[in-house]
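Sample A.
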Amino acid sequence: MITNRVEYLILTLVDLAVREGDEYVTSREVADRQGIPPKYMPQIVSILTRKGWVDSMRGPRGGIRLAVNPEDLTVQDVIDATDDRLLVKQCLDSDSECPRKESCPLRGIWLKAQQQVTSVMQGTTLSDLISSRSLLGKQNRHPEAGDLPQVLQEHDAQTHPHVD
């Protein structure tokens, strides 16, 4: 499951990526547009600046702005920037104490599902998320906090069509 922290990081990056020009915007503006609780923005901005994905400037004209090419940043990069793990099943965690870990008849399915999820996250760039928003007719509004999984699902459907 994508944690709120990962989702807030991605929503912040998408918000900054769709902005035109090099102007700084306040983290409060981003939080308001994206439906992110403002109390989380200092932590979000700290992670993004530490990774070098966002520039920040203090002062009356300060704020944050994107510092990377959206094509160079994947959803998996953002997940990896946190201690969060995106597991389809907790038993796949290397620290799992599941007594049936080696003999579970479902383990193969969980591993295959995990590989698919990881593949989608590694293959989805910030630029893809922006393009998906445009294809979904959302270019004139910012996604709500709950839209990210839907955008990823739509992107996956476009890049990996299901064949019967």
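Sample B, a different protein:
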Amino acid sequence: MTEFIGASAVVDVIRPATPRTLGAFKVEVWGRQPHDYVRIYDISAKNDTIAAQQGIQRFVKEIGAMLAEQNAGN
């Protein structure tokens, strides 16, 4: 069974996207209890919404792997 990992994100634009290049974004993601960790990711994307989605996906994957490792040790 996979555990639900709720998370939120805020995005800072480092360099806006143009029609020819991806933008650069700093995405801060924080989890909801009991996964109240904070991670900051540098992400290249077409816009801030996609950057936020990618940041949350990375967070969920990272925290999920951490939880699986902890559970394997028990």
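Observation for Sample B: The chain has a mean pLDDT of 94.
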